[in-house]
Amino acid sequence: MGAEKSKTLVRKQAPKLGKVEGKLVKHAPPRHYSYQQVQKVIHIKSSTPFVSALKRIEKHMRQESKNLKNKNRSSLNDSYITIKGMGKAISKVLSLGLHFKVENGNKIETFTKSIGVLDEFKKSNDDSSDSDDEESTLRKRNVSCVEIRIYVK
After folding, report:
1. pTM for the complete prediction?
2. What phi and psi, each to the nearest 5 degrees, are found at residue 115?
3. Which runs of consecutive H residues, i.e. helices, occur in the chain?
4. Three-class SS of residue 4?
5. Tens place of pLDDT per residue across the chain (153 aa)
6. 51, 88, 106, 136: most buried by Cβ count inside 10 Å?
7. Which InterPro entries match (predicted)?
């Protein structure tokens, strides 16, 4: 009987991303929505004031409840407002969702995901003064995202 070779699991790690010189230009992820979804999706940034976001969401909720009164009440499960936030805005989005759950008694659903975004690094050549001579490097990275659906009563 031959000697058995022990199988070892070899993991390859992703290469470390080196430092890229140049000016960082962040690009938002692509958004593909129909017209009806545009009216129901609210994006929150870390610089968005909390009270302003509350008022904007309440305005959309009033509009959605008004639309429900005009329509058949059987579509009640489909009537919700979506709040999305990435990175530093996640805590603000979660606070907004909890506010509507505790204060107003709305049903909420929480979804987490990762979204790929592109960072562009522009490196300008010092030799000439033309802005067309800028070299750009693109790098993809994943950003945490949270989505909260607030259902209209």
Report:
1. 0.69
2. -120, 135
3. 35-38, 50-70, 90-102
4. coil
5. 455 555 666 666 655 666 767 777 776 666 665 555 556 889 999 999 999 999 999 999 998 888 888 776 555 567 899 999 999 999 999 999 999 999 999 999 999 999 888 888 887 766 555 555 667 788 888 899 999 999 998
6. 106
7. Alba-like_dom_sf, Pop7/Rpp20, RNase_P/MRP_Pop7_fungi
